[in-house]
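Pasting as-is:
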Amino acid sequence: MAITISGSGTMQQMASGGITGGATLTAMTAQASTSGTSIDFTSIPSWVKRITVMFNSVSTSGTAQPLFQLGAGSVTTSGYVTTSSRLQDSVSPAVASSTAGFILNGGSASNAISGAIQITNITGNIWVAQGVFAATAVSTLSFTSSGISTLSGTLDRVRITTTNGTDTFDAGSINILYE
């Protein structure tokens, strides 16, 4: 099996007999996460079954944790069941949870975070998430995130913000892939 990239930037999984049923990855345009309190990716097609949100050295101005929120027409800000663990060598693990979005227990103005979270459609409008991230400057600091959310309609957007909604992004870039 091979992966090919078309001129439009989409990737397709190829088998010896050709394309294997809709395995197309589409990358949105990467957004600089250097200002503002949220980053939105909208116009996600209705056929999407998996979204990967990727962080490249992302940090914020304060200590609020990053949140990944989904939406169907507007952003859903409640009803999530999520948890995140912060793991560091020689330090007791720290856990955070949220009902406002898929949480990432990595909030700190000094933490530039890189990694990815996959958000997958289980059935209907039910979405589950799992992610692994690391602090770019601290080799012994990592974060996990997981959870579930049920939307009121078909997913069409993803927002990245923070738990307090006021800390601003001040470094890095964020992008999504969908399939």
